[in-house]
Protein backbone atom coordinates (compact mmCIF):
# COMPACT_ATOMS: atom_id res chain seq x y z
CA UNK A 1 0.00 0.00 0.00
CA UNK A 2 2.78 2.45 0.82
CA UNK A 3 4.32 1.82 -2.60
CA UNK A 4 1.18 3.10 -4.28
CA UNK A 5 1.14 6.16 -2.06
CA UNK A 6 4.81 6.84 -2.79
CA UNK A 7 4.12 6.63 -6.52
CA UNK A 8 0.98 8.81 -6.49
CA UNK A 9 2.07 11.44 -3.96
CA UNK A 10 4.36 13.43 -6.34
CA UNK A 11 1.65 13.57 -9.00
CA UNK A 12 -0.93 14.69 -6.47
CA UNK A 13 1.47 17.34 -5.15
CA UNK A 14 2.18 18.71 -8.64
CA UNK A 15 -1.54 18.66 -9.40
CA UNK A 16 -2.31 20.67 -6.25
CA UNK A 17 0.41 23.21 -7.04
CA UNK A 18 -0.96 23.56 -10.58
CA UNK A 19 -4.49 24.02 -9.20
CA UNK A 20 -3.39 26.74 -6.75
CA UNK A 21 -1.45 28.59 -9.45
CA UNK A 22 -4.36 28.47 -11.90
CA UNK A 23 -6.79 29.59 -9.19
CA UNK A 24 -4.55 32.56 -8.39
CA UNK A 25 -4.31 33.50 -12.08
CA UNK A 26 -8.09 33.31 -12.54
CA UNK A 27 -8.75 35.39 -9.44
CA UNK A 28 -6.21 38.00 -10.52
CA UNK A 29 -7.77 38.15 -13.98
CA UNK A 30 -11.24 38.58 -12.49
CA UNK A 31 -9.97 41.36 -10.24
CA UNK A 32 -8.22 43.07 -13.17
CA UNK A 33 -11.39 42.96 -15.27
CA UNK A 34 -13.43 44.46 -12.43
CA UNK A 35 -10.85 47.22 -11.92
CA UNK A 36 -10.77 47.99 -15.66
CA UNK A 37 -14.57 48.11 -15.79
CA UNK A 38 -14.62 50.53 -12.84
CA UNK A 39 -11.93 52.70 -14.43
CA UNK A 40 -13.77 52.84 -17.75
CA UNK A 41 -17.01 53.72 -15.98
CA UNK A 42 -15.25 56.46 -14.03
CA UNK A 43 -13.61 57.82 -17.18
CA UNK A 44 -16.93 57.81 -19.06
CA UNK A 45 -18.63 59.61 -16.19
CA UNK A 46 -15.84 62.21 -16.10
CA UNK A 47 -16.06 62.64 -19.88
CA UNK A 48 -19.83 63.16 -19.71
CA UNK A 49 -19.40 65.77 -16.96
CA UNK A 50 -16.76 67.66 -18.93
CA UNK A 51 -18.86 67.62 -22.09
CA UNK A 52 -21.94 68.81 -20.16
CA UNK A 53 -19.94 71.55 -18.45
CA UNK A 54 -18.57 72.77 -21.79
CA UNK A 55 -22.04 72.77 -23.35
CA UNK A 56 -21.48 70.04 -25.94
CA UNK A 57 -24.32 67.68 -26.70
CA UNK A 58 -22.87 64.26 -27.38
CA UNK A 59 -26.15 62.66 -28.47
CA UNK A 60 -26.80 65.17 -31.28
CA UNK A 61 -23.21 65.70 -32.46
CA UNK A 62 -21.25 62.48 -32.12
CA UNK A 63 -17.78 63.00 -33.47
CA UNK A 64 -18.54 66.55 -34.59
CA UNK A 65 -15.38 68.02 -33.09
CA UNK A 66 -12.27 67.52 -35.19
CA UNK A 67 -9.03 66.60 -33.53
CA UNK A 68 -6.24 69.06 -32.76
CA UNK A 69 -4.94 68.80 -36.32
CA UNK A 70 -8.33 69.58 -37.88
CA UNK A 71 -9.24 65.94 -38.30
CA UNK A 72 -6.38 65.30 -40.70
CA UNK A 73 -3.43 63.12 -39.87
CA UNK A 74 -0.16 64.87 -40.39
CA UNK A 75 2.90 62.92 -41.34
CA UNK A 76 6.01 63.65 -39.33
CA UNK A 77 9.05 64.99 -41.16
CA UNK A 78 11.09 62.19 -42.57
CA UNK A 79 8.28 59.68 -42.14
CA UNK A 80 8.65 56.20 -40.80
CA UNK A 81 10.54 53.49 -42.62
CA UNK A 82 9.65 50.11 -41.08
CA UNK A 83 12.00 48.19 -43.38
CA UNK A 84 15.04 49.86 -41.82
CA UNK A 85 16.67 50.49 -45.18
CA UNK A 86 17.98 53.88 -46.14
CA UNK A 87 15.93 56.02 -48.52
CA UNK A 88 18.86 58.12 -49.54
CA UNK A 89 20.65 57.30 -52.75
CA UNK A 90 24.29 57.87 -52.96
TrEMBL record:
Region called Disordered, residue ranges: 31-90
Comp. bias regions, Basic and acidic residues: 31-43
This protein's record includes keyword Transmembrane: yes
Entry keywords, A to Z: Membrane, Transmembrane, Transmembrane helix
Organism annotation: Kocuria soli
Lineage, highest ranks first: Bacteria, Bacillati, Actinomycetota, Actinomycetes, Micrococcales
Residues annotated as transmembrane: 6-25
Protein name: Uncharacterized protein
Amino acid sequence: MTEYLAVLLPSIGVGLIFWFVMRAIMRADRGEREAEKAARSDAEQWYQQVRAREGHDIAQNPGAEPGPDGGKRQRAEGGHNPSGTSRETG
